[in-house]
Amino acid sequence: MIIRRSGESSSLRKLRALTRIGLTLYSATVIYWMFIGFGREIHTGGPLQYNLIPLRTVSLYFDMNNGLSLISRFVNLLGNVDVFIPFGILIPLAKTRSISWIRISLYAVPCILLL
User: Fold this and answer.
1) What is the domain count for the chain?
2) Concatenated DSSP letters for the chain?
3) Domain membership flag for residue 45
4) What is the pLDDT of residues 58-72, one digit of tens each?
5) pLDDT tens across 6-28, in order?
C-alpha cells in the first residue's frame, strides 16, 4: 500500500526526485570544476598554496595593474557567482513544502561555504 501526501501528485513527486538527482549531479560537477577541471594539475613538489583571507583573491581582480584583461576579470568574477545560481533554483524545487528566501539562504550558504 502506498501512502500519499494529501495534495501531492505522483508527477510532482517525480519532479522532486529528479530535482534532487540533478542537485546531486550539479554539486558533483562543481566539485570536479573546483579541484580537477579547467586544466588544474596536482602539484607534488613544494608547499600547498591556499588563501584563508576572505575576498583576497577577488580584490586582485579589481587591481588594474596586475596585467589581466578586462574579459578575464569578468569571466572569473561573474563565473564564480553564476556557478552557484542553480543551487538557489534547485533547492526550493527539491523541498516538499514552500520555502522562503531566508531559508534558501540558510540551506545554500553552508553548502557553498563547504565547497
Assistant:
1) 1
2) -----TT--HHHHHHHHHHHHHHHHHHHHHHHHHHTTTT-----SS------STTHHHHHHH-TTS---HHHHHHHHHHHHHTTHHHHHHHHHHSSS---HHHHHHHHHHHHHH-
3) no
4) 888 888 888 888 888
5) 566 888 889 889 999 999 999 89
